[in-house]
Amino acid sequence: MKAKKLGKFLVSLLFLLVLLLLLYQYTSAPHINEDVPLPDQLHPKVAENRDILIQEGAEKGIQIIITDGFRSKADQDRLYEQGRSEDGNIVTYAKGGESYHNFGLAIDFALLSKEGKAIWDMNYDGNGNGESDWMEVVAIAKDLGFEWGGDWKRFKDYPHLEMPFGLSIHELQRGKRPPGSDVLK
């Protein structure tokens, strides 16, 4: 009799484990909600804060250029192939639909040298105040609500600034959008 109860218990436990595994698989897989259109430009708040960032940098004698903003899934896939099947260095680990750029929530920046060239020198002090212009830009960006790719634990993306509005890529793929996204329609 005990063996029969143990057998039923084990079958029930196995059924529960299979159910939990299926639930985990369904909720962790990046199911893209096709009913919610992807944006095709920067979120208005990101665009506004991008402009403020450039203005506040200029007030400190730092010329900031935006090297990238909204990026389509196709553009992201092309960038992902760089350093893999295409020439160049790897610059991203995100495929199309896996980057905040694809949802209009990220920008990349560089500094403009006195000679008018884009530079990514994090030690450059073009305004001559004894501080890294790069880190001054990062401080301004953080005050505006951007998160900096240089703070990431794994892949450091020093030119990258994003405003995820508390949403993960997974949530964005499933159709969640930050407030103000409706003006993009």
Tell me the structural class: alpha+beta
* CATH hierarchy class name of the largest domain: Alpha Beta
- Biggest sheet record: 5 strands, antiparallel
- Give the terminus-to-terminus CA distance: 65 Å
* Backbone CA Rg: 22 Å
Care to count the β-strands? 5
Average of the residue pLDDT scores: 89
N-to-C SSE string, H for helix and E for strand? HHEHEEHEEH
Architecture of the largest domain in CATH?
2-Layer Sandwich
CATH topology of the largest domain, by name, is Muramoyl-pentapeptide Carboxypeptidase, domain 2
**How many individual helices?**
5
Shape: elongated
Strand content: 5-15%
The total number of structural domains is: 2
* Helical proportion, percent range: 25-40%
Quaternary state of this entry equals single chain
Low-pLDDT runs = none
Task: Based on the model shown, name its key terms.
185 residues, alpha+beta, Muramoyl-pentapeptide Carboxypeptidase, domain 2, 2 domains, five-stranded antiparallel beta sheet, 5 helices, elongated
Structure description:
It is a single chain. It is built from 5 helices and 5 strands. It is of the alpha+beta class and 185 residues long. The chain has 2 domains: 1-30; 44-184, Muramoyl-pentapeptide Carboxypeptidase, domain 2 (2-Layer Sandwich). Strands 1, 2, 3, 4 and 5 form a 5-stranded antiparallel sheet that branches. Strand 2 and strand 3 form a beta hairpin. Helix 2 (44-59) crosses helix 4. The mean pLDDT is 89.
Task: Give a topology summary.
Elements: H1 2-28, H2 44-59, E1 64-68, H3 73-81, E2 106-112, E3 118-119, H4 133-143, E4 147-148, E5 160-162, H5 169-173
Antiparallel strand pairs: 1-2, 2-3, 2-5, 4-5
